[in-house]
Design brief:
- By secondary structure, the protein is α/β, with parallel strands linked by helices.
- Among the domains are: 11-135 and 165-232, Rossmann fold (3-Layer(aba) Sandwich), CATH 3.40.50.300; 310-349, no CATH class.
- It is 53% helix and 7% strand.
- It contains 16 helices and five strands.
- The protein has helices at residues 22-29, 45-48, 62-76, 80-102, 118-124, 137-149, 156-177, 186-191, 193-204, 252-265, 267-273, 277-283, 288-293, 300-304, 312-327, 329-347, and strands at residues 11-15, 35-37, 106-110, 129-134, 181-185.
- The longest helix has 23 residues, at 80-102.
Length: 349
């Protein structure tokens, strides 16, 4: 068996939900003269998912591909460890090519959806540094709503893994890594950035310099997958937006989302994440049943379901909601009825 000598010695992974402040942390660490980073690489997801059958779609049929590769590895090579070694060599080639070109020594890979492959990354790169950045899930929800969703509630189904799956997978990853997990809470980081970045640098075995906290002169990572809003509002870590998520209580639709999301995560997950379930629930306390049944509220459960999986009743609910929102209760209902009748007519043609 050919054994790779590369185990991620020059890698740092930031593991977090999207909208957790990972771009801010990335930009601060990129102020270190030895650290190179890009917007988001997504580099390891495809290779790792070669052996995964579920939740992949491709024109060539990824399920068959997974079976084919697995059978080939099992029957004609020295086994899965051989594939892992090949992945290490492949990753080393790419990461170190970037480091040579950038004349740096450490690559910082900030790809939020790596929360799906934490065990695999840790198995492949046990000598890498893993930084788990946690933020109040309500703040994450609020940021997603105002940055990307912007009233297009069905879009939430596309980011549902970031909201629903990520916290539990991140906690499982922290359990797996144990003492190897470097854990930072966003709120504590922005409230006392010098102390937290200094401590983080010590854990990453790099030297801290206070100039890292002013990222105004740090080159932004190349790539489209960057924070389009928050990072540009300041030139150093700021705690001004820490409690902004509480404003969701003032909007019935957002309050419904907040309550539903909180309860979908559950008390254990929220508490283990480091936040008080009861305190958050108290902020959004309301008659949840009235929010669910109101025609002016788009249901959270419907947001999480991809549109192609909607029932006819779901489609009617959505058409009615957006028509009334756009045209008002009277004209909106008339517009919705016309659209619904048109759909029914096409269905029975």
């Amino acid at each position: 068996m050919h054994e790779s000598s590369y185990y991620g010695e020059n890698l740092i992974f930031i593991i977090s939900q999207p909208r957790s402040g990972s771009t801010l942390l990335q930009r601060v660490l990129a102020g270190h003269p030895d650290v190179l980073t890009s917007a988001e690489t997504w580099l390891m997801l495809h290779p790792v998912y070669t052996h995964k059958v579920a939740d992949i779609q491709s024109i060539y049929n990824s399920e068959w591909a997974s079976v084919g590769v697995s059978e080939f590895i099992e029957n004609y090579t020295d086994g899965n460890e051989e594939y892992d070694n090949a992945l290490r060599i492949w990753a080393k080639t790419i990461y170190e090519s970037a480091l040579r070109k950038g004349k740096k020594e450490i690559f910082l890979d900030k790809t939020p959806r790596y929360f799906f492959i934490i065990p695999e990354l840790y198995r492949l790169f046990p000598k890498a540094k893993f930084v788990f950045l946690l933020r109040n899930p309500m703040a994450v929800l609020s940021s997603e709503i105002h940055t990307y969703v912007k009233g297009n509630w069905p879009f939430i189904s596309q980011i549902a893994p970031d909201l629903i799956d990520a916290p539990k997978l991140i906690l499982e990853g922290m359990d797996l890594l144990g003492d190897d997990a470097i854990v930072i809470h966003y709120e504590e980081f922005v409230n006392n950035p010098e102390e937290y970045i200094s401590g983080l640098c010590s854990q990453l075995d790099i030297e801290f310099n206070v100039s890292m906290l002013d990222y105004s002169k740090t080159e932004a990572p190349k790539g489209k997958l960057n924070d389009p809003v928050g990072i540009h509002q300041h030139t150093r870590p700021s705690n001004k937006g820490v409690d902004k998520w509480k404003n969701m209580k003032n909007d019935p639709q957002e309050r419904h989302f907040a309550i539903s999301y909180l309860r979908s995560l559950g008390k254990e997950t929220v508490e283990r994440y480091g936040y008080s379930f009861d305190e958050i629930e108290g902020i959004f306390s309301a008659d949840e049943s009235s929010l669910k049944t109101s025609k002016s509220i788009f249901p959270w459960e419907l947001c999480l379901r991809p549109e192609k999986k909607w029932s006819f009743k779901n489609k009617i609910r959505s058409i009615m909601y957006f028509s009334i929102k756009e045209k008002g209760p009277i004209v909106g209902r008339l517009k919705a009825y016309k659209k619904i009748l048109s759909i029914i007519a096409k269905k029975f043609k």
